[in-house]
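note to self — DONT lose this again. spent like an hour looking for the file last time. sequence + predicted structure for the chain T wanted, 197 res
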Amino acid sequence: MTNLLMKFSSDSIITMDDIVREGDPILRTVTKPVSIPPAPEDLAEMDAMLLFLKNSQDEETARKYKLRAGVGLSANQIGLDKRMFAAYFLDDSGNPVELGLFNPKIISHSESMTYLPESEGCLSVDRAVQGFVPRYEKIQLKAWDREGKELKLRFRGFAAIVMQHEMDHLNGIMFYDHINKENPYKLPANVRISSLY
């Protein structure tokens, strides 16, 4: 069980042992906002979260530390009741996108929706979950960066899915909560929705 008082330094190597698994109440907690500008310990924890994502996507490092690859990590997934998450993924052009967002909030979204055909995965879930997870195709986020500057960011497609997945974590929601309970492959009616791929 992760110690909720644990602190991570900027160069902490987060491993799968540090990742809180489903069933832990912190994953069902609506996280608390952090101070703006973020405190030094919040910045250090964000650095450690970003380092984990980079390590998890590096084949050699991931093998060495037995990491599962991830593109996003929220603070409560490492036992911290803080409203912040890290994301690291490639954009449509293959360029790396690195984000450490504090107190993020979705301020607008498209009516059209999308989903990953292979469902979604989660570092806190050690089992395969079948079913479609409907997400907004485009979103706009308001958040603060590490310097305490307010940001307004737009995302579409895969990036929008990643952001919504992490936002859900900060609100105590798991991705499979969005899957239709009666029929996991049923999509919402009366909305334009198409597979991302």
